[in-house]
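Q: For a teaching handout, I want to show students what a protein-ligand complex looks like in token form. Below are the inputs, and the small molecule is N-hydroxy-L-asparagine. Please produce the holo structure.
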Amino acid sequence: MADMMTRSPIDERIFTGSAAMPQIAAVATWTFGQIAVRAALPLLRQGQSALDAALAGAQAVEDDPTVQSVGYGGIANAIGAVSLDACVMEGRTLNCGGVAGVENIRHVAALARRVMERTPHVLLVGEGARLFAVQQGFPLETLHTPEAVAQWYKERPKAAPPGQPPRLGPGHDTVTVLTLDQKGSLGGVCTTSGLAHKLPGRVGDSPLIGAGLYVDDTAGAAGATGVGEEIIRSGGSFFVVEQMRAGRSPQEACEAAIHRVNAVAIRRGVHPARVAFLALDVKGRIGAACTTNTNFRYAVNKGDQTVELRTAPEIAATPR
Ligand code: SD4
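A: Here is the structure, written as tokens, with N-hydroxy-L-asparagine included.
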């Protein structure tokens, strides 16, 4: 309903089918999502698959050293290592793959796709994922930039008092890219260095199918960003997709998921949890929502030359 009301002239052209171009779309989380949608769009225009386009978009962000929470130049963990998580999913087949806790490999989203295409598995972690990467010809490289190292020294985790959980540093953010191709099929990719100063070995939602990403042509595509523990706990992206399957618009589905995150966070006494969801369906409808004070922005392109930055509505917890 909300999506219908906020439809722009560009949206209208797509819905009425009067656009010269077959319906295509790319959306991506945060303002750096612009980099992703700009890289994804030419591929969609050429008729390449949704997953190819989403991967090209995610990889452009992984390569950008100024994006300090994804790929090369990502935020280091508590012991100064850059440890990356990623996953990919194809809406037509439900084929999917992920990697978690991978060091020294820059293109972890592409590695996740290799897991999907060249192994019988869905998720590889740590040293095993790195060995697989080497076997597949991915170069081993340092992911530290001088700027990221300097920042880590400045903000590195202080020892927590005995018995207390370690403190996380400022900064995190994931790029999740959702795409719709000319054949009307959806694809999605999620890639991140995760929460700043996370414990070594910590895995967030981003490499987990159903948590950080879920894509199914028969219902829709959804991705998440924010505090992974809260996204995993509430069944994140799968929940959003199942809301669309039940007939909700992408916007309504994202809002329903944030209500759920809020309810769980209140129940556990950790409210507000910083979480945001982004969704896209096969009609090209887009939805997004976030918890309060998350200031979630996302980039949208529906096949023309313009990239639009939108701000998601913040959904406050409903008092019980
Ligand atoms: C994680 N969800 O590792 C990621 C971090 C993130 O915005 O997206 N932050 O928990």
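A: Two things your students might notice: Confidence is low (pLDDT under 50) at residues 1-19. Residues 250-268 form the longest helix (19 residues).
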